[in-house]
Structure to design on (745 residues):
């Protein structure tokens, strides 16, 4: 009888468990293992999973909080950042899985922004390549190296569109354009995350900073953002969406307020848009102490209120603020938050830990051997050189580049000629300057330089007024056939908390260039920097001008490849370079206005003291060869929204070198219910053409390409005329007109 009772009970239990399992299997947000775990967790342990602290080993913000090892032991901290290397992460992971009650593994994050040890160009530099495959690959290599060093999660890609080069963080993004930015966002997420985490050679991506962090008033970092919903949705949000559609598992909030609401407390951004409209099901982490900062913003009276605001808005994890850990419980007591909300956040976080395999093997990403064989291996170094070459933009060339065989003596002038520290870039993290190839070394060690004698002179520092070495530069110019001057910014002049009101080349560097130029020798200027600078005088005082950004570990080799003509430059600017700070924001996809620019009359939109146009436009970049574009063609001049439109162009390489061109397609909607930009990038292709070769390049456009938010804020098309431009930069006027017809009429 007793046995029969147990048998009956066991069957009942099995049926109920299986039912449960089936229910949980059908509900993707529920997982038996995770539900089981959550059911065993104390409130402190739950809040611990929602807490991310920096270690004191390295810091990327204003606060450090000791005691994180105790927090790990007591289950009050589930994730750490600024912790890397197999030794370090293994030690901390052991504390979590051996000494904490539930043994939940830690998640290790780090800002792997443009390289882990093998440094790649800064993101704005990479964006100049317009080479999505190459960017995907560099993101993969960064992830692979970081994963081999025990990391799981990178705070990248940063996809903030910005039209303001005063903002130092343009360095970390993809520039001013929504379409290009979205494509790059997608490529970087694919590179970072891959398709799965089976091989532990990928990281979790974190798209940031949600939202509109790239539009702070006055270009001042952390400042308020105020924009219409139309601009927010049309210009700033698409790259975040593209990253999420590409599979980004986490999102970071931004520091700024948008339309009066700080992003970390914005239900509109974090729940209405992110979760409900975009169906994002990963977790949301704040930026560094941005919950606490809602008190300074003045939307919360104290940190408890700030935490409650954040949780109710949709934040899952608190970076560095300890608000979830220490302050938020009060909200449970007075009913302003519910335990179900906390459970939902914990669930999202644990699901991602499970997804990458941490519960199966908490040390999965840590192997001394793998760390050794992966980091800075030959394949990675050569990928860095390839990416760096493609990121270089040739801004001017009076025909002196590539360097001619007749050049026997080159004078190389610093401040940045022998530099390594700055060349590895503004967010080099654990990258080391000693592994970087300086410009001087790159120039000397290139096989094409074997008959060239190099002289090198330090002329001045990046900053300061000291011109005492100018005379010695002058004395050494006479023997040179060519002078290469490397000027620019130091790496701390761009990046986070590095906004500038004046964006000319600092110190006496421009004076140096002027002095050199006056000596009459051909001058090649290499600019190394993190943001668009005011380069009018630099351009005038140079025979050739190269935008070299901060190119990473292989900077010197890559620049040498371009200077000697071993690589024909193909980079195109992803952001406009103003003539003067007073023009900012200056960007290609502006509106026409009711009084478009007309230099022949007074009463229209212009400056009295300078042109409206930037010095170098979006999409601009020269090659050693030149490409001739014929007029664009279309498969039909009248088309309806449900038809595909094929636009194509014949181009020919009419110069003396083989080369790669980035063919850019822009549209203009001539009449709509709301004002539309004078041009919008909708497609581009990179094509290699041998000298003398012609090709027909085709693009397929569809309904989405012609859609926008209409007067009622509804996304869709309106019938009417469009110009389709195909050319080599955003100044192109090479267009064909088409009409979008309303099929039902
Ligand atoms: C603050 C920065 O805004 C963010 O981009 C970064 O990921 C965090 N600090 C962590 O270092």
């Amino acid at each position: 009888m007793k046995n029969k009772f147990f048998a009956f009970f066991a069957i009942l239990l099995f049926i109920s468990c299986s039912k449960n399992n089936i229910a949980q299997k059908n509900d993707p947000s529920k997982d038996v293992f995770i539900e089981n775990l959550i059911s065993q967790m104390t409130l402190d342990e739950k809040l611990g999973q929602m807490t991310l602290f920096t270690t004191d080993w390295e810091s990327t913000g204003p606060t450090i909080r000791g005691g994180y090892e105790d927090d790990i032991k007591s289950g009050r901290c589930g994730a750490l950042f600024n912790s890397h290397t197999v030794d370090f992460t293994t030690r901390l992971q052991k504390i979590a899985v051996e000494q904490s009650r539930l043994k939940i593994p830690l998640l290790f994050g780090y800002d792997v922004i443009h390289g882990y040890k093998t440094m790649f160009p800064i993101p704005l530099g990479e964006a100049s390549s317009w080479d999505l495959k190459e960017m995907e690959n560099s993101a993969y290599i960064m992830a692979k190296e970081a994963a081999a060093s025990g990391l799981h999660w990178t705070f990248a890609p940063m996809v903030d569109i910005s039209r303001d080069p005063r903002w130092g963080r343009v360095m970390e993004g993809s520039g001013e354009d929504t379409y290009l930015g979205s494509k790059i966002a997608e490529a970087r997420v694919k590179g970072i995350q891959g398709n799965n985490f089976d091989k532990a050679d990928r990281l979790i991506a974190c798209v940031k900073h949600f939202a509109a962090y790239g539009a702070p008033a006055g270009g001042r970092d952390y400042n308020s953002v105020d924009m219409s919903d139309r601009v927010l949705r049309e210009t700033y949000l698409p790259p975040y969406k593209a990253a999420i559609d590409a599979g980004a598992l986490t999102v970071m909030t931004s520091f700024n307020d948008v339309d009066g609401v700080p992003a970390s407390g914005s239900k509109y951004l974090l729940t209405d848009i992110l979760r409900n409209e975009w169906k994002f099901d990963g977790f949301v982490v704040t930026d560094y102490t941005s919950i606490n900062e809602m008190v300074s913003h003045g939307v919360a009276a104290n940190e408890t209120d700030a935490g409650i605001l954040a949780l109710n808005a949709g934040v899952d994890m608190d970076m560095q603020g300890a608000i979830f850990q220490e302050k938020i419980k009060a909200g449970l007591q007075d009913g302003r938050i519910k335990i179900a909300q906390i459970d939902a956040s914990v669930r999202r976080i644990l699901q991602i830990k499970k997804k990458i395999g941490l519960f199966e093997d908490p040390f999965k990403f840590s192997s001394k051997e793998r760390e050794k064989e992966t980091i800075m291996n030959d394949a990675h170094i050569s990928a860095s050189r390839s990416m760096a070459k493609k990121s270089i933009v040739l801004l001017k060339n009076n025909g002196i580049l590539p360097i001619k065989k007749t050049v026997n003596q080159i004078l190389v002038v610093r401040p940045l000629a022998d530099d390594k520290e700055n060349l590895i870039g503004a967010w080099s993290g654990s990258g080391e300057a000693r592994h970087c190839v300086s410009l001087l070394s790159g120039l000397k060690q290139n096989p094409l330089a074997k008959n060239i004698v190099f002289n090198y002179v330090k002329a001045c520092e990046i900053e300061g007024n000291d011109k005492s070495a100018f005379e010695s530069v002058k004395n050494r110019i006479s023997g040179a056939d060519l002078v290469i001057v490397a000027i620019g910014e130091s790496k701390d002049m761009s990046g986070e908390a590095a906004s500038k009101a004046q964006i000319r080349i600092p110190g006496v560097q421009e004076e140096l260039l002027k002095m050199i130029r006056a000596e009459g020798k051909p001058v090649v200027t290499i600019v190394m920097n993190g943001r668009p600078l005011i380069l009018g005088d630099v351009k005038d005082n140079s025979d050739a001008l190269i935008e070299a950004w901060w190119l990473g570990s292989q900077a010197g080799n890559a620049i040498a490849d371009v200077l000697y003509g071993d690589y024909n430059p193909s980079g195109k600017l992803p952001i406009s370079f103003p003539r003067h700070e007073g023009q900012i924001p200056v960007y290609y996809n502006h509106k026409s206005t009711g009084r478009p620019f007309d230099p022949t009359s007074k009463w229209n939109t212009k400056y009295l003291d300078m042109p409206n146009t930037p010095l170098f436009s979006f999409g601009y970049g020269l090659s050693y060869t030149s490409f001739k574009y014929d007029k664009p063609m279309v498969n039909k001049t009248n088309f309806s929204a449900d038809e595909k439109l094929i636009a194509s162009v014949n181009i020919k390489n009419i110069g003396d070198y083989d080369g790669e061109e980035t063919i850019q397609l822009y549209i203009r909607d001539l009449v709509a219910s709301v004002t539309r930009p004078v041009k919008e990038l909708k497609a581009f292709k990179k094509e290699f053409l041998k000298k003398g070769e012609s090709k027909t390049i085709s693009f397929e456009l569809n309904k989405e390409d012609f859609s926008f938010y209409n007067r009622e804020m509804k996304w869709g098309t309106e019938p009417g005329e469009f110009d389709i431009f195909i050319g080599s930069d955003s100044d192109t006027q090479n267009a064909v007109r088409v009409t979008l017809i309303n099929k039902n009429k």
